[in-house]
Amino acid sequence: MKQQAIVFMVWFLLFGICRLSEPAMQEAGRPDTPQIVTILKRLEGKMSGIKTLRTSFTQEKNLAVFDRKLILKGTIFLQKPDLFAWHVKDPVRYSLLIKGGAVTQWDEESGKVQHISLAKNPGYQIVTRQLQEWFSGTYTSLLEHYEVRVLNHDPVCLKFDPRKDALASKAITSVTVTFDKDERYIQTISIQEKNGDGTLLTFTDTQLNIPIDARAWEVK
């Protein structure tokens, strides 16, 4: 696979983070019950104290048309209120930075930096807002676009199904998110697309409220 195709896949999955997946688990709750709201508010409360985050990720992409996995590895950085960086290191180098109302991205193959205005690209604006919601812990706002089910309580595992009128429903079946035991950050995001492709994002070595090196916000 050419590097530009991998870079496109990374961006698509960033968009997909806000709309996919599900491991084989027994569903333990009905959509949007008071229990769901209570859990989401509890998660928000625990994550509200997080100002910065650094985590390593492994992204495994299963393509329905191929009997193999595509694996990407890298690092994610978050600094509230408006900084988010996604750096792929292996097998290619790719960086995406969200800062305020703009997106900057760079890939190793072209060597070019691209600047994207969110005001002029509402699609990107939706993506970046939901990315920040996932990693910042503002989950109750997702109820407007998703039905939510509890799959497990210890650790908390939630399944997000896009509502029929949501933009996400056109591309994705569901998103399943598993939290760490202390409920302060995400362990995995499992993704299943309508075309049969699936993705598993696993986060490791997560560090909270640490100083973030200025180089994290560079895209080269």
Describe this structure in words.
This protein is α+β, with helices and mostly antiparallel strands. The protein has three helices and eleven strands; from the N terminus they run ααββββββαβββββ. The chain has an eleven-stranded antiparallel sheet, with helices on one face. A hairpin with a 3-residue loop joins strand 3 and strand 4 (94-99). The longest helix is centred in the middle third of the chain and has 15 residues, at 122-136. Mean pLDDT is 78; it is low at 1-30.
Number of distinct helices? 3
Fraction of residues in H or I helices: 10-25%
- In N-to-C order, the SSE pattern is HHEEEEEEHEEEEE
Oligomeric state of shown chains: single chain
Counted beta strands? 11
Report, as a whole number of angstroms, the end-to-end distance: 22 Å
Strand order of the largest sheet: 6-5-4-3-2-1-11-10-9-8-7
- Helix/strand class: alpha+beta
Strand proportion, as a percent range, falls in 35-45%
Low-confidence stretches: 1-30
- Calculate the mean pLDDT score and round it: 78
Give Rg in angstroms. 17 Å
Shape: globular
**Quick one: biggest sheet?**
11 strands, antiparallel
Structural topology:
Blueprint: H1 3-16, H2 34-47, E1 52-62, E2 69-79, E3 83-90, E4 94-99, E5 102-107, E6 113-117, H3 122-136, E7 146-153, E8 156-162, E9 172-179, E10 186-193, E11 198-208
Antiparallel strand pairs: 1-2, 1-11, 2-3, 3-4, 4-5, 5-6, 7-8, 8-9, 9-10, 10-11
